[in-house]
Structures are given as C-alpha cells and as structure tokens.
Automatic annotation (TrEMBL):
Family designation: Belongs to the pirin family.
InterPro entries per the UniProt record, alphabetical: Pirin, Pirin_C_dom, Pirin_N_dom, RmlC-like_jellyroll, RmlC_Cupin_sf
Positions in coiled-coil regions: none
CDD domains assigned to the protein according to its UniProt record, in alphabetical order: cupin_pirin_C, cupin_pirin_N
Protein name per the record: Pirin family protein
Lineage: superkingdom: Bacteria
Domain Pirin C-terminal per the UniProt entry, residue ranges: 193-292
Ranges for domain Pirin N-terminal: 40-141
Source species: Streptomyces meridianus
Length: 321
C-alpha cells in the first residue's frame, strides 16, 4: 500500500522515551485519505497523537465498500525502503505485483507480506473480475537497523495459525499470540492478530507485559478494556498488560497490533523509511531516475511519481507529536 498524498510530510517517530509504560486507554480517531481514484481509507497511524505501536508505523482501514460497478483499489507501481507491508482482507481480493516478478491474488484471511529492505516497487489493484465488497487493512512494519537493508522479498501465506478462547477466534497474522505463531518473517518482537468475537463474547486475552498494544476495530461493535470501539477507530493500550478484556454483544472484528517498543528513531517520508534526510533524498532520486527499485511488469498505467521533498532537513525524533 502506498501513501498517495501529493504533498507528503515527514513523520518523525521511534525511540522509547515517550512509550506509555503503563496501561492506558487512548482512543485514536482516523482521518480520511484518498487512495487512487475510487478508494478512500481511514488512516490511523501515523496519527497526530501516536506515531507507532511497537514496530507498526502505518495503518489504513478501508471499507466495507461496494465496488461492483467501480474499479476498486488501483494503486500504481510505487517504491518502498526500510519496511514490511502487510495486506489483510476481510472481504474482496487484491492483486499484488512487484519488481521481483511476484504476481499473487490475496484473499480474505490470507497474509500478503512484502519486505522492502533496501528497495522494492509494487502495485496493488482489485482484479478486473472482482467481488462486490472490498474491506480490509494495510499496514507497515518498520525494520530495525540490522535488517533494514536486507534483500527484498514477498511471502504469501494462505493458511495461518489460530488461537481460540470462549467466543473468540484469533488468526495470528505476524508474530505469536497465546502459543500460536505466524509463519510470516519478522525482524522485531511483534504481534498482529485478527480477532473474531462471537455474539456474547466476554473474554480476557493473554498479552505480553513488555509489549505495547493497540486494538483496531474492523467491524461490528466491541469493547476493549471497557472502551467502546466503532469500526475505523483504534484504541492505544500502552504497556504493562498481562491480559486484555474484550467483549461484544452482537459480534465484532478487531485487529490486535502490538510489539516491543521500537527503540530506534526513524524518518518516515512518503513510502520510505530511513534514518536521515540524505537517505530519503537518495531513495527519492533513485526512484525518479528509474534506478535501484526495478520495474513492476503487467500493471496498466504509469508508475507513481514521488512528491517534492520539504525545504527543511528531515530529522528523526520522537514517537508522539
């Protein structure tokens, strides 16, 4: 997934000095962002009040949208560095192409995991013959220093492990949850899970006390630690929790995102993650000059040009504004 904003601003985040070391209940509201010609998303990270949750640094929630007579998702070829992208669907299909030659249709509850590493380009689109409803989330994971220049890679995992509890089924997307571990490659201690809450669910989900967490409401109405969540909202939960109370009267879908607080400070600008202005400038120049990132073959349309850099130097700073 790309950040398609024409006037990209730097997101300066990372470091542990501003991590909530104790449980909190900080409700994050989304902002509407256009994605291509016909898709609008709710951007929850980066947020004015919160930039990261563990290594999770970018979260878009979209749909459910009726795209029967629409082109659906149409994201032209664009570059990435220093991160992993996670494609996660509740409804619909997304066709992934990348500069490694990958061509993969991603369907509901299947993991599409792309590691950008030193450089990759990709496109995402709804297939020409696509299902009526499109609903899902696109997320980024920041890569730590020792892994952020790894070779690019793409993984598709159609079957994922499941953790269960009374009235709860949790598909483990990344990392592990309650003893179930995802096959997706990770480079930092992390958790990502899709939780299906049955009607009448009232459960306490075990957590890691050293992780910070957030709960993203995907569908239905749920309560996390007593806070009511509506679809498209996200509750930051802080650290120091050994369990999370979850309940739903009529049933709901919630994504749990968590991980060890990300120690490094990073610069996130447009679709690049680096550590300095110079790195970002070099990545932008390479993309615009057609080097380093390779080509995405098969997409009908032009690749996405990078916006201009801001007039001031980008500097890595803290996690919250």
């Amino acid at each position: 997934m790309s950040n398609l904003e024409r006037r990209a601003t730097a997101t300066l985040c990372g470091g542990r000095s501003e991590v909530a070391a104790e449980p909190v209940r900080e409700l994050l509201r989304s902002r509407q962002v256009a994605l291509g010609e016909s898709t609008r998303v709710r951007r929850l990270l980066p947020n004015l009040g919160r930039r990261m949750v563990g290594a999770w640094c970018f979260v878009d929630h979209y749909g459910p949208d009726d795209i029967l007579d629409e082109p659906g998702m149409q994201v032209p070829p664009h570059p990435h560095t220093g991160l992993q992208t996670v494609s996660w669907l509740h409804d619909g299909e997304v066709l992934h192409r990348d500069s490694l030659g990958s061509l993969q249709t991603i369907r509901p509850r299947e993991l599409g995991l792309m590691t950008a590493g030193r450089a990759i380009a990709h496109s995402e689109e709804s297939p020409a013959d696509h299902p009526r409803i499109l609903h899902g989330a696109q997320l980024w994971v920041a890569l730590p220093e020792e892994h952020r220049r790894v070779a690019p890679a793409f993984e598709h995992h159609p079957v994922l492990p499941v953790a269960t509890g009374p009235g709860l089924t949790g598909t483990v997307i990344l990392g592990d949850l309650d003893g179930a571990r995802s096959p997706g490659t990770v480079h930092t201690p992390i958790t990502g899970a899709d939780l299906a809450l049955a009607p009448g669910c009232d459960v306490r989900l075990p957590l890691e006390r050293d992780f910070e967490y957030a709960a993203l409401a995907m569908s239905g109405e749920a309560e996390a630690d007593g806070v009511r969540l509506e679809p498209g909202s996200m509750l930051y939960l802080g650290c120091g929790r050994s369990e999370l109370p979850l309940r739903s009267d009529a049933g709901a879908g919630v994504m749990l995102l968590g991980g060890e607080p990300f120690e490094e400070k990073i610069v996130m600008w447009w679709n690049f993650i680096g550590r300095s202005h110079r790195e970002i400038d070099e990545a932008r120049t390479d993309w615009m000059e057609g080097s380093r990132f390779g080509e995405v073959h098969g997409y009908t349309g032009d690749r996405l040009p990078a916006p201009g850099l801001p007039p001031v130097a980008l500097k890595p700073r803290g996690r919250v504004r």
